[in-house]
Design brief:
Number of domains: 1
Radius of gyration: 19 Å
Oligomer: single chain
Distance between the termini: 13 Å
CATH superfamily: Glycosidases
Number of helices: 9
Strand order of the largest sheet: 1-2-4-5-6-7-12-13
Strand content: 15-25%
C-alpha cells in the first residue's frame, strides 16, 4: 500500500516509512559495499535490498568513538549516493568493525556516551538507515563467570546492549540494528565461554530492536548444529544448521535454552566468490540457492544430512547476506542474480 503525503517530513522520517514499506517482503538480498574499493555506492546493483557500508572503525584513544572516512568517493558524493539508493527503495546501514578491527571496548558510561555521540553524528551526516555490528575476533568475549545470556555481566557486552537500544530510542523504531557475527560468536552448543556464544546476550538484549542477524557461514571451523551434529563449511548443511540455531532455538552448553528468534530476524551469510573468503566456505550460487530454498520452503537438496527445525520451512526468514557486493560485481553478479528471483517470491 502506498501513501502520499503533502507535508514536508524530516529525511529520517521518510527513511522510517521506506523501511516499513520494504519489510513487507521478508527475504532480503543483503550485501557489504567496500567504501575503500573502486565501485561507487551509486553503482551498487538493485539486486541488493540492504547495503552495509564497510567499515566504520574506532578512532582516537578511547576505543569507543566511531569514525568513518570513505576513500572511494568524497563525503558529499557518498551522502548523495546514499540518498540515491534510498530513493530506489534500498536501505543503507553503516557497518562497524570488520575482520581487522577488534578494539571496540565500551567499558563505562563515558565510553557509552562517546560511542552513541559519534554514531549519532555519522548517521545524521550521511542519513544512513542504521548500523551493522560486524565485531569479529575477540571484540566480544565473555568474561569468566558470565554464564547467563539473560543477565550478562561482561561490561563491554552490557554497555553495547545499552548503547544500541539507546540509538533506537533516539532515532525511532525505524532505525536498523543489524549483525553479522562469526559462527563461533553464536554457536554455544559445545561451549559457552569467551568468544563462544558471546553475541547471544546482545541478541537477547536487543530483542525486537534487532532488525536481522546474518551469520557468517565462511572463514569458520566446523560447528555444532542444534541437533548435536557437527557440520563443516562449504556445504548447504552448514548454512542451514547455522541459521537454524536461531530459527529453532537450541540448548547451550551451560544448560540454558536460547529461544528462537522471529524468522524475519534471521539470515545467513555467504562469500560472493572463493577469493572473498580466504578461510574457506565458498559455495557456488546454485548450492546457496538450495540452502535458501530448504530454509524458506522446505525443498530438500541432494545429499542433505541436516533436518530443519520446521517441517514446513521459514518463508519469512530474513534472506541471504553476501560478502561482498564488490566481489559479486566482478563476477557478473552471479550470486545475487541466482538468489534474488527466489528471495523476492517468498515472505510476501
Amino acid at each position: 500500500m502506498t501513501f502520499t503525503y503533502r507535508i514536508r517530513l524530516p529525511l529520517f522520517t521518510l527513511l522510517v516509512i521506506a523501511t516499513l514499506t520494504l519489510s513487507a517482503s521478508a527475504a532480503q538480498m543483503i550485501g557489504y559495499w567496500e567504501s575503500y574499493g573502486s565501485l561507487r555506492l551509486s553503482q551498487v546493483s538493485s539486486n541488493y535490498n540492504v547495503v552495509a557500508v564497510a567499515f566504520a572503525l574506532t578512532g582516537g584513544t578511547d576505543n569507543a568513538t566511531i569514525s568513518f572516512t570513505p576513500s572511494v568517493e568524497t563525503t558529499k558524493q557518498l551522502t548523495a549516493d546514499v540518498a540515491t539508493l534510498q530513493r530506489k527503495g534500498q536501505k543503507v546501514v553503516l557497518s562497524i568493525g570488520g575482520q581487522t578491527a577488534n578494539n571496540l571496548q565500551l567499558l563505562n558510561a563515558q565510553d557509552i556516551a562517546a560511542f552513541e555521540s559519534s554514531v549519532e553524528g555519522l548517521i545524521t551526516k550521511y542519513d544512513f538507515n542504521g548500523i551493522d555490528l560486524d565485531l569479529e575476533n575477540a571484540t566480544l568475549s565473555l568474561q569468566a563467570g558470565d554464564n547467563d545470556f539473560t543477565h550478562p555481566s561482561t561490561p563491554t557486552i552490557v554497555n553495547l546492549i545499552q548503547a544500541c537500544n539507546d540509538l533506537v530510542a533516539h532515532f525511532g523504531s525505524g532505525f536498523m540494528i543489524t549483525m553479522a557475527p562469526e559462527t563461533v560468536n553464536v554457536d554455544a552448543y559445545g561451549t559457552y565461554a569467551g568468544q563462544f556464544g558471546s553475541y547471544l546476550p546482545v541478541i537477547h538484549g536487543l530483542g525486537g530492536n534487532l532488525s536481522y542477524i546474518a551469520i557468517q557461514c565462511y572463514n569458520s571451523g566446523s560447528q555444532y548444529g542444534r541437533d548435536g551434529g557437527i557440520y563443516t563449511q562449504g556445504t548447504q548443511d552448514f548454512c542451514v544448521a547455522m541459521a537454524d540455531l536461531l530459527l529453532g532455538g537450541y540448548p547451550l552448553a551451560n544448560g540454558q535454552l536460547f529461544p528462537a528468534l522471529t524468522p524475519s530476524q534471521v539470515a545467513f551469510g555467504v562469500p560472493a566468490t572463493a577469493a572473498a573468503a580466504p578461510g574457506g566456505g565458498y559455495l557456488p550460487p546454485a548450492m546457496v540457492l538450495q540452502a535458501a530454498k530448504y530454509i524458506g520452503s522446505h525443498i530438500s537438496y541432494p545429499g542433505r544430512i541436516y533436518t530443519l527445525s520446521s517441517s514446513t520451512g521459514y518463508p519469512t526468514f530474513a534472506g541471504v547476506m553476501c560478502f561482498d557486493i564488490n566481489y559479486d560485481q566482478t563476477n557478473g553478479l552471479a550470486m545475487s542474480k541466482k538468489l534474488v528471483p527466489y528471495l523476492r517470491t517468498i515472505g510476501n
